[in-house]
Write a structure and sequence with these properties.
It is built from 6 helices and 4 strands. The chain is α/β, with parallel strands linked by helices. Helix 1 links the parallel strand 1 and strand 2. The chain starts with a strand and ends in a 15-residue tail after the last helix.
C-alpha cells in the first residue's frame, strides 16, 4: 500500500505554513504554481490544481509518491478508501474566529463578500470540521494528526519534531522551525469584529 502525505484543514487555517514546514524539512511538495503568492499568502499557497478534480479524477494520486499534497478538508471525503493508498494527514486546526477574519479580509481584497453572518459561518465550519475529523478517524487507511496552528507559532520546534515523528521521516527540524514566520499570524482573534 502506498503512503500519501496530505496537509489539510479549513481555508485560511495554516495549511500553507504546514506545507512550507514539510518542504523545508525535506519533503518535496506536489505543486504546479498555478496559484501564485499574493498579499494574503506572501510565501505562496503550495497547491496542486488537479486536487480540485478529486471527485471525478483520482488518477493523479498515483503520481504523488513521496511528495506532500495540500487539499481543503471537504475533499478528504473523496479519497479512495479501498486500500490502494494509506493516507498520513496533517490537519491544521486554527481558531475558527481567526479563520473567518482571514477569509473575510481575503474576500474583500478580491471584491467579494460572504452572504452569511460570522456566527453562522463559525458554527457551520466547526460542525463541518468535526464531521470530517470523525469520518477520517473511522477509515482504516487514514492516519491523522491534528496540528494546532497556534502551537506552530508558539512552539515551532516541538511541533516540527512531532510532525517528523508522526510521518516517520527524518526531517530537518531546524529548517522546519526556520520556515515558521510568526509575523504572518496577522488575523488574530482579539481583532474579531
Amino acid at each position: 500500500m502506498t503512503d500519501i502525505t496530505i496537509v489539510s484543514g479549513l481555508p485560511r487555517s495554516g495549511t500553507s505554513v504546514g506545507m512550507q514546514m514539510l518542504t523545508a524539512g525535506g519533503i518535496v511538495p506536489m505543486i504546479d504554481n498555478v496559484r501564485i503568492a499574493d498579499e494574503d499568502n506572501p510565501r505562496g499557497y503550495l497547491e496542486y490544481e488537479m486536487v480540485k478534480s478529486l471527485p471525478t479524477n483520482k488518477s493523479w494520486l498515483e503520481d504523488v509518491g513521496d511528495r506532500a499534497v495540500k487539499m481543503v478538508y471537504k475533499l478528504l471525503y473523496e479519497l479512495p478508501i479501498d486500500g490502494t493508498y494509506n493516507y498520513k494527514i496533517l490537519l491544521l486546526n486554527r481558531n475558527i474566529g481567526e479563520v473567518v477574519i482571514s477569509q473575510k479580509k481575503m474576500l474583500r481584497r478580491l471584491g467579494k463578500h460572504q452572504n452569511i453572518s460570522d456566527n453562522k459561518l463559525i458554527s457551520l465550519l466547526s460542525k463541518e470540521l468535526t464531521d470530517v475529523i470523525f469520518w477520517c478517524q473511522q477509515q482504516r487507511c487514514i492516519d491523522m494528526h491534528i496540528v494546532q496552528y497556534q502551537d506552530i507559532i508558539d512552539h515551532p520546534r516541538r511541533e516540527a519534531q512531532t510532525i517528523s515523528t508522526f510521518l516517520k521521516k527524518d526531517l530537518d527540524i531546524d529548517a522546519m522551525v526556520a520556515a515558521v514566520d510568526p509575523t504572518l499570524h496577522r488575523n488574530k482573534i482579539e481583532y474579531f469584529e
